[in-house]
Write a structure and sequence with these properties.
heterodimer, A: 108 residues, mainly alpha, 84% helix, elongated, B: 276 residues, 11 helices, 2 strands, globular, transmembrane helix (chain A)
């Protein structure tokens, strides 16, 4: 029982770190894209393609937000397998398959 | 506009997504599918941004979350498949119903289910999957043990929550709260934290599909996502200073106004700006 509790506590710390820093990274990427897209006095000196680059940066930020929960599932899957908790490893794998397959099916 | 809508949503914490779609469609005259795509990204942002403190406070039950996520993601998948088939007026109508349910839920105070932890209250699923857990309650200064009840009913309600989340682009706390309170009978702090944790993965299931479909329009979704992260940070500070009763009255009023607006949209009546 003790082992399970310390395993869970370790997983919680990892998850908190991933979600905290992941949110900052995604939000900063979106903010950088928005800053590039906003017209300002500095924009005149920028090359013409800046608008297109800004859109790509914003899209990358949004993709990072969507990938963050998927990364969280992969981390949980890895942690459960590492702890030899194969039943929960299988449950995490199932959720991951539903999310990934859902994106593929829904996209068509 | 997008920043403002989502900052307001973000400030309201749990109910973030529910304000974004009505504000974008009614006041911003944005296509409802584009509004849903933008909202679902901000739902992920709020869930991920708010998860860390709950995890560090040991309030989130991650084992229970992953079990329930099998139901919420399947629900989300069904929602994605249905979203293209449901006519837009019906979407507005469903949204209005969910807004009214949320207002009603906000009026009724939630109370902690009083569950005596005895050997007899152990449930077969809760024990075999080791879902029962404990959390530190700082107000009481001790650890509170709790058991997870009626997983089957909880899973059914979670499937519905996932479906509504994908269909309307909301976190769908409105369905998760009764599932957590009445079926699983979790302490409020644990259910809030666990529900918030699950929302990210549920929303990612539909956001992935909408993203690949090209229904997430960057120009709208980017400011909305950023606004909700900023709003969530500011909101947590504002919330602590305002009395919760005043806040509840304000929320109920805003929810009711938006519900009426969405209902009018469902019947093709538009009060703000030119008709669609």
């Amino acid at each position: 029982m003790r082992r399970t509790e310390s395993d869970v506590a370790e997983l919680e710390r990892w998850l908190a770190g991933l979600l905290h820093y992941g949110t900052w990274l995604a939000a900063s990427t979106v903010a950088a894209g928005l800053a590039m897209a906003l017209p300002g006095p500095w924009a005149r000196s920028w090359p013409f393609e800046t608008g297109a680059v800004a859109a790509h940066v914003m899209t990358a930020g949004i993709a990072l937000f969507i990938l963050l929960p998927i990364m969280r599932l992969i981390l949980m899957l890895g942690a459960f397998v590492h702890q030899r908790d194969y039943r929960f490893g299988a449950i995490a794998a199932l959720v991951l398959v539903i999310v990934v397959a859902g994106s593929m099916i829904g996209a068509t | 506009m997008s920043l403002g809508a989502s900052a307001l949503g973000g400030m309201l914490g749990m109910a973030s997504g529910i304000f974004i779609v009505p504000i974008l469609t009614v006041f911003g005259h944005i296509d409802i599918h584009v509004a849903i795509g933008a909202s679902i990204v901000s739902v992920i942002a709020c869930s991920c941004g708010g998860a860390a403190p709950f995890l560090r406070g040991r309030l989130t039950n991650v084992r229970l979350a992953i079990v329930l996520e099998t139901a919420t993601t399947l629900g989300a998948l069904s929602g994605v498949v249905m979203s293209g088939l449901i006519p837009v007026p019906l979407l507005y109508f469903i949204f209005a119903v969910i807004l009214m349910l949320s207002a009603q839920q906000m009026l009724a105070r939630r109370s902690d289910p009083v569950v005596a932890v005895t050997a007899a209250s152990t449930t077969p699923w809760g024990a075999s999957l080791r879902l029962d857990s404990r959390y530190p309650d700082h107000a009481l200064g001790r650890e509170i043990e709790y058991r997870v009840h009626r997983i089957g009913l909880g899973m059914v309600l979670m499937y519905g929550a996932g479906l509504i989340s994908a269909l309307l682009g909301i976190g769908s706390g409105v369905l998760k709260i009764p599932a957590m309170d009445m079926a699983l009978r979790l302490p409020i702090k644990v259910s809030s934290a666990t529900s918030n944790f699950m929302i990210g993965v549920t929303a990612a299931a539909s956001a992935g599909a909408y993203f690949l479909r090209g229904e997430i329009v960057t120009v709208i979704a980017a400011p909305v996502a950023l606004g909700s992260v900023v709003g969530a940070i500011l909101g947590a500070r504002v919330l602590m200073r305002v009395s919760s009763d005043k806040l509840r009255v304000l929320f109920v009023f805003v929810l009711a106004v938006l519900a009426v607006q969405m209902l009018l949209e469902a019947f093709g009546i538009r009060l703000f700006g030119a008709p669609a």
